[in-house]
Design brief:
2 domains; 12 strands; elongated; alpha/beta; 290 residues; single chain; TIM Barrel
């Protein structure tokens, strides 16, 4: 398995600083009063259920931000599946610092691993189909790059990062132009940077026909049944000279996911990859005094 890597940029350093500040504040009064400053120890990050690991580089970074004297040694790669009671990594250094960093470290890894785990489960559900899963912008404010990274760790793909890196003409945009989807596409194509994808959202076969005339790069079939989507796919594939990418979204869940993937669409975007996730259970077990 090729390991996934997470670059720690300004967005993540600011998020970690905020997380540590809100948790530690002026200092960990419990740890600093009852744990001797000279005490050193080691501890293990341990899975308490089966899941897909995500966030190892972030965990190492958080420990280092609390105390440069803490050394974190991962024992699993992001993307690896672990079982209950399996050790994910270990940390050693001042006991005070280990205890102070514990909650922030676990909060990050539990949520990111939860996203990776749910994503991997949904990817498994459509194995053998031609469709790929994509995320959306329905992310936790400030966490977008982390959560989208976790989606890739789980085996799915990233849609646009924000409003700046791809064009998605939604029905509100078209309605604001009096229903003229061709005008919306032409205006975006004239102003957008070279190579940027232009996608149009459609809600019916009739809207699809009008959208195809505008020659977008991709179409998003929104809140349709698998039968309606199959009909749209046949129309698109049967249109001479059309190589548009076909995406389905809206009202799709685990129970219906495979039926949508079997319609012939290229991709399926799911907000639930990031907005409806249960954090996994991870503990920090303190091992030995050094």
């Amino acid at each position: 398995m090729k390991p996934k890597t997470l670059s720690i940029g300004d967005d993540i350093t600011q998020l970690v600083a905020l997380a540590l500040s809100e948790d530690i504040g002026s200092g960990d009064v419990t740890t600093n009063t009852c744990i001797p400053g000279e005490l050193h120890a080691s501890a293990s990050v341990v899975a308490r259920e089966n899941f897909v690991v995500c966030g190892q580089e972030l965990v190492a970074y958080v420990f280092g931000e609390v105390d440069l004297g803490l050394v974190y040694r991962p024992q699993k790669l992001d993307g690896e599946r672990v079982s209950d009671r399996e050790i994910i990594g270990s940390v050693s250094g001042p006991m005070r610092s280990i205890l102070t960093a514990e909650r922030c470290v676990l909060n990050f890894m539990q949520r990111l691993s939860g996203i990776a785990t749910q994503t991997a489960h949904l990817v498994d559900l459509i194995e053998g189909c031609g469709a790929r899963l994509y995320d959306t912008r329905k992310t936790t404010p400030g966490w977008r790059r982390l959560e989208k990274y976790a989606v890739t760790v789980g085996g799915a793909c990233n849609h646009r990062v924000g409003l700046f890196d791809a064009v998605l003409i939604k029905n509100n945009h078209v309605d604001a132009l009096g229903g003229d989807v061709a005008q919306a596409v032409s205006r975006c194509r004239a102003a957008a940077a070279d190579g940027i994808e232009i996608e149009v959202e459609v809600r019916s076969l009739e809207e699809l026909v009008r959208a195809l005339e505008a020659k977008p790069d991709s179409v998003l079939l929104d809140n349709m049944t698998p039968e309606q989507i199959r009909e749209c796919v046949e129309r698109i594939r049967g249109t001479s000279g059309t190589e548009v990418v076909i995406e389905a979204s809206g009202g799709i869940g685990p129970e219906t996911l495979r039926s949508y993937a079997e319609t012939g669409v290229d991709r399926i975007s799911l907000g639930m990859l990031t907005h409806s996730v249960r954090s996994v259970d991870i503990s920090l077990w303190h091992d030995t005094e050094e």
